[in-house]
Amino acid sequence: MEKKNKENKKVVDNDNMVINHEGKKYEFDYEKLSDEAKRQFDRANRVAMEMIKLDQRSSELKWVINKYISFVVGELNIIEALEKQEEDKK
C-alpha cells in the first residue's frame, strides 16, 4: 500500500515505512511507534488523502468552468461576425 502527499512521501513495504520530510529520509517500523505517533501518522495520511481529493475536485471544476467560458466566447465570436456582416452590407 502506498500513501503520498506533496510534503511527505510515505511508502509501506512490509511494516517498513519511509517518510521524506523537509529533505530528510526517515525509515521506520510503524509498529514500533508510540500510540500517539501512530495516531498522528494516520491523521496526516487522512489529511493528505483529503487534499488529493480536493485537488482532483478543483481540477474538475476548472475544466467545467473552462467549458462554460468557451461556449460563451464562441457565441460572442458568432455575434461579432454577424455584426460585422451587417456592417459590410451597409
Gyration radius, to the nearest Å?
A: 26 Å
Give the CA-CA distance, first to last residue: 71 Å
* Assembly status: single chain
The neighbouring-strand order within the major sheet is 1-2-3-4
Tally of separate domains: 1
Percent of residues in beta strands?
15-25%
Label the overall shape.
rod-shaped
Question: What structural category do the secondary elements indicate?
Answer: alpha+beta
Number of strands: 4
Question: Uncertain spans, ≥5 residues at pLDDT below 50?
Answer: none
Helix share of residues? 55-70%
- Secondary-structure element pattern, one letter each: EEEEH
Total number of helices: 1
Largest sheet: 4 strands, antiparallel
Topology (SSEs and partners):
Layout: E1 2-4, E2 9-13, E3 16-21, E4 24-29, H1 35-89
Antiparallel strand pairs: 1-2, 2-3, 3-4
Describe the structure.
By secondary structure, this protein is α+β, with helices and mostly antiparallel strands. It has one domain (2-89). Helices cover 61% and strands 22% of the residues. The protein has 1 helix and 4 strands. A 4-stranded antiparallel sheet has the order 1-2-3-4, covered by helices on one side. Strand 2 and strand 3 (16-21) form a beta hairpin. It is rod-shaped.
